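Why show two proteins at once? Because comparison is the fastest way to build intuition. When a single record is shown, students tend to memorize it. When two are placed side by side, the eye starts asking what differs. So, the first record is below.
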Amino acid sequence: MELKDRLHFVAKLLSKNFDLRVIAGSGWAAGLSEKFQRERQKHPDKSLEELDPKLLTPEVMMYPEKDLLERSEDFIWGVFRHEMGHIKHSDYQSLMEAQEGAKQEGYNPMDLFVIYDAWEDGRSNNMEGQTSKTARHRLGTYLKEDISEALLLDFEKKPLPIQYGALCWAKGAESFIEGFDFEELKTRIKDEKVLKAFEKTEEALDEYLGERKGRKAFTDVLWQKGWPIFKELIDKHIQDEAKKNHERKQKGEGAPQQQQGQQGEKGEGKSEEGQEGQQSQEGKGQKGEQKKEGKQKQPGQQPGESKAWDELSQEEKEQYIKEAREKLTEEEREFVKRIQPKSMQMKEREDGTIEVTMKGVSPEDIKQAEQAEKEFDEQKKKTEQEAGKYKEAAVKEVKESLEKLKERETGLTKEEREKYEEYFSEVRKYVGALVEKLDEVFPPQEESEWEGGQRRGKRVDTRKLAREVPTGHGRVFEKKEVPEIKEAAFTLLVDVSGSMQGNKIEEALKAAMLMAEAFSRKGVPFEILAFHEKLLELKQFEDEYFGKKKLELMRVLQEVQTSHARYNDDGYAVDGAARRLQKRLLANDAQGALIIFSDGRPEPSSTHSGSEWELHGIVNKWSRQVPLIGVGIGPGMESTIKEYYGKNGLPVPDITKLPHALLDILRKQIARFEKRNQ
């Protein structure tokens, strides 16, 4: 059903130029409307190129449902393109006109049809294949799977004209079939007459395959350059076969078995289409008017059986030529039937000419197409309804599984993730930039390097063995030099007093998120503290910034609304946070900084209102012991943040500028402390 649905979809795309219906049938065929048939009957002398192009566009594309089940997708679309190629590019009016010319020259119209089919199949496929690489690939799949294996099986044992036709067909298909070796195929032909005929016409065949106009290709190339050489090959084959048949009679081997359709059970010389067997021609076995049979022969006796070929009368030779002629015609019918497109109807008339028409579409076909489409749509709708019963439950189950997986991955429920993402999404894109800036101040841990030329070590430098051993110095060892890079640690301190309500606390939260995500990605230990009249611990150095710890940071939004937020014990909070950070830095011989997000407006509670907690004094005290940076996020923060933090104050009106501004002052602070400690 999926493939049928795609066929319908492609048909709708093609209906941009013509209304094409795709229906199941007995085989592959593209049919035209009755308007085409009426126009042909009304104007039989018109070439296809003179007709309205709309009349030459199929209305129905038939396909065998069995192929949809058994054949590959590329094969199915390949047949589709092959059928369309013949209808769009082949000019059968020229062929029908040329058959009369072949008859006048004394040849069977089927002879002309053999070379035409062998050449035209490649040309129409080539024209269609130029539309896209996919079209060429699919045409190649069809040609390989459906025609080449059957057409080229033991073809070198067929009559010479058939060998030539198969060789020409293979030349046209060579560029389509992957891995096809045309030169190897030629080596199977042992008769030089076939190879010479192909060599003489190969250039003309290439010209024919590339000619876009069907009528010009036939009249100017095939009829003028290909047909004369093919006639010579037919003449030679008929003469050779007639002589061989005579020799077999002389040896008592009897006549070769006739092809099916040449002599049926009742002895009627009819083809599978029910047409009369072809009459013999004179003049090299073909030319001139038909002659009456010679003397009455005895039953079972062939004329001139006891004579050598040169001793036979012309009338006796004609009998052998007639047999060879009829046998070749049957072989030609079989060859043509294999490569004739399904969308074309071939019928032999009484005079031997072949009538080729494109299949028409009757009102019954249209009715059948509509019914087929209706049944397909109903079946598809029923299937979708049945699938819909399980779809909702399946989707729900998948969503639940994905949510559990996401919750396990992040440590947060969907609601909690959405809550965090509401603020973090605005600064997410700046995390990478901040990590890069941190790498400038705190380079990533480099790989340890091995230093050679050592008297002792854990590894031998084999490259120096030959030189050092004879000297007795013994400097053949290597030892690993581990780069000395100090650890880093940071404290983020967020002001959650009442003065931070509104936009200030939201911007401070985003800035803290940005710093926390960057520290976490880089693997730098950090803690998060908040303060009003109390110092709140949101994350310790040892905690991983994951899951619920991220939600702890978001507590700052609620804390500014509590009764504790009436006070702002900045001095007490900075003092406590600085002590914690100093302990961490000294214990680990680390570098880092205390980063305070505040509006710089102290409002101490009675518990911490003494001069010992005055913010100016606390900042002056600790700025000599640990790097300390006061960050004021948002507009109008410059005067207040500078008032209390002085050179360590960093007003950031726009959070997008935070990575560069923060790391610039951080670099200066750390450099100052390193210089002091030297």
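Second record. Ask yourself what differs from the first in the token line.
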Amino acid sequence: MTAQHGLSAVLCLLLLAELASAQNARLSPAELDTARREAAFRPRGLIYNNDGDDVFAAVERVSPEALLAQRTTGIEGTQVGAIAYSTTRSFAGWTHETRACAPFLVTDGAFAHNMTGELIAQGTDPLRVIVDYCHDQGLDAFWSMRVNDTHDARNELMRPQWKLDRPHLLMGTAEKAQRYGGWTAVDYGQPEVRDLAFEVIADVMRRYDVEGVELDFYRHPVLFRAHAEGGVATDENREQMTDLLRRIRAVADEVAAQRGRPLLVSARVPDSLDYAAAIGLDLRAVLEERLLDILIPSGYVQFAPWRETVALCHQNGVACYPCLSNPTNSDRPARALRGAIETYRARAVNAWYAGADGLQIFNIFKQSHPVWNELGDPGALVGLDKRYFVTFLGPRMASPYLGGGQSYVTIPTLSPHAPVTIEPGARHEEPIEVGEEITAGGTLDPEVLLSVQFAQLPPAPDVTVSLNDRRLVAPDVDGGWLRYRVPAELVLMGDNAVRIECADDAEAAIVWRDACLDVRYPRPAQ
């Protein structure tokens, strides 16, 4: 036997061994189902949602390390268990090496430092860089696709050629936009749109070693023409979207069976079955068919109590990761209070209390932000200062994408965007949920402050404030706020009733704007 023939024989044996190994690694349908459930419910703590704008940072030299330095390096060792990395600039414009359409390689204007093209020339791309980092650090990597992102409606540099060549697939024009959503939104009622979405998603599943894909229906939640023009999506629209998800699920399972481990499908969605149905997403059917493994409910508005959404997910074998989005209140002081770490802690505590399997953090990108080391473990939140509100987000963002959107909100809405007017002789009550025993069984002794805000501070005799049926007295006055010191034992785990009464003889109605409960713990001696 010649050396060449010997080498060929060795290569053949190696190839046969590799094929046999791959065949052995294939998962049966029953094994895949079990593996999917186990992977979906594996503790991750936090999913870090990165919108991918780090690819546009000015760096001295383009490299994987330069990209990672912007928003990623330093996340290792925190409570983050997964990164959901978006490469979507707009539909049909992605900053990874797509094969179904051209990648987003623009290097003009705000995108002058776009690293995508150079990284591809180096044999990688932004998504591969993140995937490699995650695997080096023992984290799960998810690719996040914004299902109908329309940032290109305001910035023509973001508008991909695919859209320019197919104006008939868009909801509107620059001269005549539809009623809801950016005019560059694509119509998922068109087969060509659904096919491209499927091809791009399937391509990522097949060519990138991701643990899963995330379908972000919240950026932006306009999917079908009937809804965009002022109505609601049709039954046919909902079936079209469900069928697309079936196709995606089939590819995920096909790839998972071949590689011998699950490929998860998650979705970031409005946490209202009715609102989701109105925009074209039959969430109930999607969950019952278990087309998803992880549901990421909520965004700029929360529609329903976390416990209801968690229960719906769990009864269908789907993990639930409530999304803690950044507050978008147009009232700047209210936004600042809600953007504080104390408020994020309270939001996290309430989500964990409702049975969440983990949390997603949206629109926070600094690796040094304290959320990464605090919110992903309920135990780590014990003894940390918190600020609980009647509502953290308010209803404002429920309507910009759907007519009458605020009517779908089923949780309290008291906030500067939705104040309550209390007439003389009347009373009104709102709950503040506290998802923990603030004294930790008597081992902690926090200071508690209930603050209520009014449009105009009423005279003292005209207003009575109570917490859990106990009348509060001697408040501090701080602008339009009354601040009451509250005994810690008065605060319940669960809903706490804040009641405002307007005196019978008050000269005017009281306009109640906001309320929060601050829980502050003594600092340990240095």
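One difference worth noting in the second protein: The domain at 419-520 is CATH 2.60.120.260 (Jelly Rolls).
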